[in-house]
Amino acid sequence: MKLSLRSMITDRSILLQVAAVLMVCQLVAHAVTFAFVVWRYERPDLLTGTSIAAVQAIGFRDVFQKSDAAERSMLEAAIERANPHIRFHDAATLILSRASILPHAIVDGMTRARPELASVTSLVAKPVGREGDFAGTDELVAIQAGAGRALVFDPDQGGPRINVPRVVAPVFLIAFILPMLLLPVWAAMLLTDPLRRLAQSAERFSIDLDPTPLPEVGPAEIGRLAAAFNLMRTRIRQLVDSRSRMLAAVSHDLRTPLTRLRLKTEALPDGEEKEKMLRDISAMNAMIGQALSYLRDQTTSKALERVDLPALLGSICDDFSDAGLPARFTGPRNVVLECEPELLTRAVSNLVDNAVKFGGSAVVRLEMRAQTEAAILVEDNGPGIPDPRKLLAFEPFSRGDPARGMAEEEGFGLGLAIAKQIIERHGGQITLHDRAPENGKTGGLLVQVLLPVLPRRPAKRIAEGGPLAATACTPSPGAPL
Amino acid sequence: MTIPQSHILMVEDDPEIARGTTRFLTQSGFRVSHAPDSRAMDRTLRDAKIDLVLLDLMLPGEDGLSICRRLRASHTMPIIMLTAMGEEMDRVVGLELGADDYIAKPFSSRELVARIRAVLRRGANIRGNAPDEHGSKRVFAGWALDVAARQLHNPEGARVTLTGAEFDLLVVFADRPRRVLTRDQLLDLTQGRAAGPFDRSIDTLVSRIRQKIEVDPKDPVFIQTVRLGGYMFTPEVRTP
Ligand SMILES: Nc1ncnc2c1ncn2[C@@H]1O[C@H](COP(=O)(O)OP(=O)(O)OP(=O)(O)O)[C@@H](O)[C@H]1O
Ligand SMILES: [Mg+2]
Q: How many Cα neighbours within 13 Å face the side chain of A303?
């Protein structure tokens, strides 16, 4: 439970996670602020710095001090009448207590707003005096008014009372919620952008070994990651380059002695031995070719070309049968696909080569499976491959039954691995099947290759100024051919 | 058709390969000189009239591709590249730099001799009667034939693959449009490739080409069968 919750959070994209964390933080911060504000609205003295009551009280005190002693009692009565929260008391009768309430905040608030208040000896009074005064209030402020009188007031009175919900609702929405939602996303994007670029760059590099290094900017950790990535990229490039150089050197250095060997063998008197040696030399050369192409095709990529698939398959079979190896092609015409023709030729040739080597002859069939999918089926009459070995056969360097030792026909065991690599690169699939047995003979192997092809178009070459049957028999100069 | 003893210059750094090749080329009736690098090659080229250069791709000092480029600029004799790479890419590059053919190591002596003969014959043709067909591209009825890259594209722009022999035959046709060509002539004009025991007859090759380029191979239009004579390539061919 705990684990799954954890993975639920950590499996999301970093952007979402960061944004969520920021949102929660903001939410909490705003909530605290908001609660504080709402709470403090109940204490307007603090909210506004000083309460209106205090300002009034000080104003009245000044008036009181400047007035004639004779008028004072009249003045007191008038002020008390007009301001029910202000009362004059005999300073001596006040029970003063510094400890009972929140004096400092009140006093501080007042002195901050009105510096001249600092000089006022402000004391806090318990409610005293006349019955009914300050009912329900337990905090009062008293200031010395002079002449033995003190001015007592309720600091909570007379302060601004803002109707919190009414004013806050729309303002809160726009001013708080929107940035609360958008800012975290923006901040998270800012943070994760270098990561995103790193991922993109890694993707591009894995496809085409793109050499542009990544800018090593962003947060320190990501900058280090980018630097490490760049270093790794340089090293991979060096590896690939040195492998390409090695491939060139190997193909040259192996084929040069092979050429010598071949020339010497050809100079021998004709006979079975000579034939065998020449065959072995060809086999060795083919194996070198297989190994080189397996290594090379992983890294190089050529442009895709539109290619007529039946012509390609037909040519492969014709090349085999021209070399005395029975291979036949059947299938519809005009199937076009986008591919790297040299690679696709190599893939199918490997399959035909196997069928001829292990099954004696090959039949290649082309079938349309859908508008944009074609199946290439390569079949033979050989022993086939038992089910448990079928998947294994695609592994590089896997061949036959290891217990049986290496049969004479077997090569490096790269043929199927190369074919798979190429077919998958073209967005296709390759699978091995047993061929249905027919008239007593065992089935042999059926290799199925599914490849995406372009939608077929009706043959319309004639309409496009192609050869016209009527004019073609007796070619006239300048005929619109 | 016999060729007067042609003088072949072999540029190859491996002495054993050079010796072996020289031996069977001499047996096949060629005169052979050998140069282990580009400087020796330049010397020989100054002193003798060379009919064909066999050029190894990997050489100490100046490499084969750059020699090929240089030779093309100053000489007209055909060049055949020898290479251990055996890769399509090198072949295309070599041919674009002006090599006339390309043979992968390890080659068989028979194949090499056959290629040399074909290139020499083609060279004679080029200088003889068809000077305007020197370019490497032919276009007919929307089809594009690129001789250097050995590629054929149909009017829709898709590549149509041909085997080596089919391609050679189609080039022979495209270079001689609207002329009746007998089987013997065609055989003679195409016999560059190894004439192996399984080599197909001209008829087989023609029917395969028809499969690939005719709208209806049973009712061919491009390559017509001429009764008693042979074949005729009917479309108009342009060399852009
Ligand atoms: N058509 C087939 N019939 C029977 N067995 C086959 C067939 N094709 C492949 N195999 C088995 O699968 C193994 C792997 O085939 P793969 O083409 O990868 O290697 P290979 O042919 O031995 O060597 P390479 O193709 O590299 O020259 C073969 O050694 C063979 O045992
Ligand atoms: Mg194989």
A: 2
